[in-house]
Amino acid sequence: MSKQISSVWAREPRPTRTPGRSREEIVRATLDLLDTEGLDGLSMRKLGARLGSGATTIYWYVENKDELLELAYDHVWGEIALPVPEDLGWRDTITTFAHSMRRVMLFHPWIGSLIGRMPALGPNALSMSDRLRRTFALAGFEGLDIDCANATLTAYVFGTVMPEIAWRSYLSGEQLDQESMRETFEKVAKDFPDLLERVIEVNEKVSDTDTLRETSFAFGLATVLDGLEARLRS
Amino acid sequence: MSKQISSVWAREPRPTRTPGRSREEIVRATLDLLDTEGLDGLSMRKLGARLGSGATTIYWYVENKDELLELAYDHVWGEIALPVPEDLGWRDTITTFAHSMRRVMLFHPWIGSLIGRMPALGPNALSMSDRLRRTFALAGFEGLDIDCANATLTAYVFGTVMPEIAWRSYLSGEQLDQESMRETFEKVAKDFPDLLERVIEVNEKVSDTDTLRETSFAFGLATVLDGLEARLRS
DNA sequence: ACCTGAACACCGTTCAAGT
DNA sequence: ACCTGAACACCGTTCAAGT
């Protein structure tokens, strides 16, 4: 009877007699709605409509909207590929993992609004954590350092992808031509000539922004991995 | 007449004749409300009430709620201390900066929900970027590497602090005793014994969680800095 | 130039009532 | 056991009207 953390993962789900709706069905519809219309596009009423039921039906399967988001959130972590570290070696395993994580996050941009809001306690998130820990243990980290290495890596990926998501959603809103973007940058950054020059250069001379972003991601990833190796040696 | 990015920073603000309200007053009230009641606690009506005016008055000073958030967002970046790199040397400058950034973010936890949602285009954010770039240039980075180094560092701080924010808000919700937290962890992580053991150990044997988190932050920061130095040498 | 209130089209959630 | 609709207390935003 003690008080629990309020999370879907801390409750027993309703004993499912498999009659009408199911949690999986609801989560699937939630993900659909999130992927197509974004976080603001998800409402209990719309979700109900998509399920061919009243909005309030959902409350039978889930305590509230936040629990629904927890479910969807964890589902995303399940999509990330994490190779078996024993085969590939830790550095390649982590590299593959990090790129996969980035790709999955960019595919579900609404995740960006959840990372700072709810801890990842679901089975997929934990299993990801578990395998990452195994990978770092295999690399030679011990005790708390395993968790620190883990935290550092995930932090890098989170922190890189989140602003990337923000930028993408911003730019995709209206269709912007080069001209008007340049205008905006010039107004906004007029006091920072170095910054302005770089931004304009990158935006106009670089044809493939996506590749640039991936290169930048790889740079940072290599940085983090080198740093981790340095910690292993000391 | 071309289309602009829709951002407060891309518009000319209304010519202020300094009569009634002012943008600064409104932003101050917004920050108050955000700091005390969080992102969900901010509504145009409440804000209006706090300003002693109708909710719709705010729309004279600001196009919409998102612009208000952009204003508040940028204000936070202005609170971060960034030492002059020429005095301290780049490594100490960045270390001081990173810790200050973390502290400021933890003080305004609602920032966690904005980083994945709107790019930082305000003057404070840009000035921060500008000084960080200067610091990394001083360290010896050149060309695009300056921006990559910058992005890597900021990513690490963002990515560390955001889950930290999520955890704090989660745990502070209800007052949880050790007992019930342990119960929750055991239920949630029953399939991951290693993880579970570590979490319980940290939560029960470590008296000062804050210090642990800072230690972990410092570990990752040193990792990133070592990695950056490795890139400088090659 | 600045402020207002009413109105519109939404929200999440509760709850008594239905089957 | 599952589902419903009405109702409550909110939202952001528009707009005609006021000073």
Automatic annotation (TrEMBL), chains A, B:
Keywords: DNA-binding, Repressor, Transcription, Transcription regulation. The lineage of its organism: Bacteria, Bacillati, Actinomycetota, Actinomycetes, Streptosporangiales. The keyword Transcription applies. It comes from Nonomuraea roseoviolacea subsp. carminata. Residues 11-22 have a biased composition (Basic and acidic residues). InterPro entries: DNA-bd_HTH_TetR-type_CS, Homeodomain-like_sf, HTH-type_TetR-like_transc_reg, HTH_TetR, Repressor_TetR_C, Tet_transcr_reg_TetR, Tet_transcr_reg_TetR-rel_C_sf. Residues 20-80 form the HTH tetR-type domain. It comes from the Bacteria. Residues 43-62 bind DNA. This is AcrR family transcriptional regulator. Residues 1-22 are annotated as: Disordered. PANTHER family: HTH-TYPE TRANSCRIPTIONAL REGULATOR RUTR, TRANSCRIPTIONAL REGULATORY PROTEIN. It holds the Pfam family TetR_C_1.
